[in-house]
Every structure is written in structure tokens, then in C-alpha cells.
Amino acid sequence: LKQLNPTPQQIEQEQLPESLINLFMNNPDELLDYLEYAVKQYPKEHLVSTVYDTILELLLQKYSTSTTEDKKEQDRLSHQIITLLQDSKIGIDVTRAMVACQKYNFKAGVICLYDKAKLYQQILQYQMKNKESDKIVSTCLKYGDEDPQLWIQALSYFSKLKRADGCRKEIQQILKYIDEKDLLSPLLVIQTLSNNESTSLDLLKDYLIRKLHNEQTQIEKDQSEIRRFRQESELFVEK
Questions:
Q1: CB of 176 closer than 8 Å to CB of 198
Q2: d(C-alpha 168, C-alpha 51), whole Å
Q3: What does each C-alpha distance from 70 to 32, 73, 74, 80, 103 come to in angstroms?
Q4: How far is CA 136 from CA 65, 143, 150, 156, 165, in A?
Q5: Which residues, at least 6 apart from 132, have a Cβ–Cβ distance to it below 8 Å?
Q6: DSSP assignment of 188-203, as one string?
Q7: What predicted TM-score, i.e. pTM, was given to this entire model?
């Protein structure tokens, strides 16, 4: 098969390489080798999405059966899968790709597809569902400027999470951003954090003191501007 050098017309007429997939159904490794060869040799415009969907499925199968001891192989397969999902020049079926990634529990692929579609809230919800609390703040930092609501959802999540440390570190980071961007009123912050019995009072105290200080600074700045404006107005009237 590797010696075949079909013309574009033959590829289209004979529906290569998808027409040969059934020949390899009992030999997934050989099928993967053939399809990977085919996508390098045949023009992309003549390849249907079935080819790429099949490659993705085969790579996910290999990844799911690889052992954690062989981390190098897992990393290689993971990189290959992500590269395939990110390639905008191929006609991969996004819905089928999402189903396949979920089927084989390839979380990086699910996140990649959500990212590609700019579905940032789905990324956060997926991480919450999988209890990946260590990744939630990073997700907010990465996408929060485009979708500030992520920070509010993250605060709500950690306010309900039962943990011995009261999620102090994460809540502090989230409150800092919410305060800087003025995403929530202090009252709503207090109401949200009241869901977490482990939240220490000093955490709320620090937030409220910082908030009051910022507001006082803004008031003083506004008053200074008002005085300056009055003085300029009086000078203008005198002239």
C-alpha cells in the first residue's frame, strides 16, 4: 500500500484511503500506520473527516491502554492527539471528537476542544465536575479577562467546598481579582462566602478592610477633583 501513488482523480473516485479502512479492522496498529501515511501523502482536500476521526479514535485507544510506567509514550500520544485536535486545516468532526475524548477519559482533549470553541465556562464546569480544584484558579487566570464570570463561579465553588483549610489560598486569589475588577459588591461576597463554614473571619476582615480603604481613597480623590474644579470655576468667573 505504501507503494501506491494514486492521482487526485483516483483518490476521489476510489474514495481513498477511507475505502480501505475495513481491510484493517482487526489490525488497529497497521490501520493507524496506513492512515498516518495516507494523510502525509494524499492532498488534504481529498481526505474526508472519517480518516481523521479514525486516526483520533485509534490514538485515544492506544493512549487509554498505555501504562503509567511508560510516561514517555503517554506524553508522545497525548501530544499527537492534541496536535490533531488543534489543527484547523483538517475537517475533524468536533462532536465525534468530544464523544471520543470523553469515552476514553482523555481530559486534555476535552479541555482542548472547549478551548478551541471558546467555551470557557464549560472548561470550568468540567474541572469542577472532576473535582480538579487545583486547576480552577489557573483556568480563571487564563480566561478570566475574556469571561470575568469565571471568577464569580470559582468563588461560589470554593465557598461550598468542604476542606480543612477553608480553601483560604484560592479564595484570597479570587477575592483579589474580584476586588480589582469590581465584579461583586461586598454584600454579595459575604453572602457567597457564608456558605463555607470553614472560611475564617480574618479572611473576610482582610477583604472588607481592603475594600473600605480603596473606597475611601476613591472618595478622597473625587473630593480633591471637586475642589480643584470649584477653584478653577471661581477663577474663571472672576476674570
A1: no
A2: 49
A3: 20, 6, 6, 16, 22
A4: 28, 11, 9, 12, 17
A5: none
A6: HHHHHHTT-TT--HHH
A7: 0.76
Q: Which residues contact 38 (CB under 8 A, 6 or more apart)?
A: 16, 17, 47, 51
Most confident of 4-8, 29-33, 74-78: 74-78
> Which residue is listed with cell 463561579?
153
Read off the amino acid at residue 38.
A
Residue 128's contacts (CB-CB under 8 Å, 6 or more residues apart) are 136, 157
Distance CA 156, CA 165 (A): 16
Q: What are the pLDDT digits (tens) for 11-25?
A: 444 445 566 666 667
Omega of the bond prior to 17 within 30 degrees of 0, cis?
yes
| Alpha-carbon distances of 167 from 11, 44, 203, 210, 211, rounded to whole Å | 58, 49, 11, 20, 21
Quick: pLDDT tens for 73-107. 899 999 999 999 998 777 788 899 999 999 999 99
Q: Cα separations (Å) of 238 from 146, 226, 231?
A: 50, 18, 11
Looking at this protein, which amino acid is placed at residue 127?
Q
For the chain, which residues make up each domain, given as ranges?
1-117, 137-239
Phi and psi at 197, nearest 5°, equal: -70, -20
Residue 187: per-residue pLDDT:
86
Q: Which three cell numbers stand for residue 169?
A: 489560598
